[in-house]
């Protein structure tokens, strides 16, 4: 097994187990068993659990934002794309393995006790905000920054609410609030 395959198997196992059970509930031996990669190779590639968690979050960030961007780009109306974010969230919330925001979950478990994980979480949130700012700007809002920040708060709130309640409709409520914000900002 080459390095790329080992890394892929380890990160796939880490993502599945950490997202479903939580970071602290999953030990390195469980990841080794789920991945089929030797413990020696696991520690060669990821010398600590913190390094593995950070790598898992960074990879998840790329995939999560990529899926969101692909969905939103398919929306024919540039003006409606900021709202399409919430449509995508509602679909995600309805998936059987939805467990909330992996980044908020990891931060909640590890907090500032893990600077590398905290930085990965902050980087993810900053990239999402940058993306939302671009969508709001393209939709014609003269000052997109504050509106994008409000949309980010609505999105995180919807994600957390859906995870806690199991109700995908939180995305619809957030979408309704986002529509009011966008309308007011464009006026």
From TrEMBL:
<keyword id="KW-0238">DNA-binding</keyword>
<keyword id="KW-0804">Transcription</keyword>
<dbReference type="GO" id="GO:0003677">
    <property type="term" value="F:DNA binding"/>
</dbReference>
<dbReference type="Pfam" id="PF00440">
    <property type="entry name" value="TetR_N"/>
</dbReference>
<feature type="DNA-binding region" description="H-T-H motif">
    <location>
        <begin position="27"/>
        <end position="46"/>
    </location>
</feature>
<keyword id="KW-0805">Transcription regulation</keyword>
<protein>
    <submittedName>
        <fullName>TetR/AcrR family transcriptional regulator</fullName>
    </submittedName>
</protein>
<dbReference type="InterPro" id="IPR001647">
    <property type="entry name" value="HTH_TetR"/>
</dbReference>
<dbReference type="InterPro" id="IPR009057">
    <property type="entry name" value="Homeodomain-like_sf"/>
</dbReference>
<feature type="domain" description="HTH tetR-type">
    <location>
        <begin position="4"/>
        <end position="64"/>
    </location>
</feature>
<dbReference type="InterPro" id="IPR036271">
    <property type="entry name" value="Tet_transcr_reg_TetR-rel_C_sf"/>
</dbReference>
């Amino acid at each position: 097994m080459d390095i790329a395959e080992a890394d892929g198997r380890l990160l796939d196992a880490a993502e599945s187990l950490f997202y479903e059970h939580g970071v602290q509930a999953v030990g390195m031996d469980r990841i080794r068993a789920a991945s089929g990669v030797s413990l020696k190779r696991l520690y060669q590639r990821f010398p600590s659990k913190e390094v593995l968690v950070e790598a898992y979050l960074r990879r998840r960030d790329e995939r999560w934002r990529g899926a969101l961007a692909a969905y939103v780009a398919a929306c024919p109306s540039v003006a409606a794309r900021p709202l399409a974010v919430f449509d995508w969230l509602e679909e995600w919330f309805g998936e059987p393995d939805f467990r909330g925001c992996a980044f908020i979950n990891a931060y909640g478990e590890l907090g500032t006790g893990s600077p590398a994980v905290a930085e990965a979480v902050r980087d993810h949130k900053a990239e999402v905000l940058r993306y939302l700012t671009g969508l709001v700007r393209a939709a014609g809002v003269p000052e997109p920054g504050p509106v994008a920040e409000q949309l980010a708060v609505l999105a995180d709130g919807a994600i957390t609410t859906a995870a806690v309640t199991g109700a995908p409709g939180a995305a619809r409520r957030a979408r309704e609030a986002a529509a009011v914000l966008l309308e007011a900002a464009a006026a």
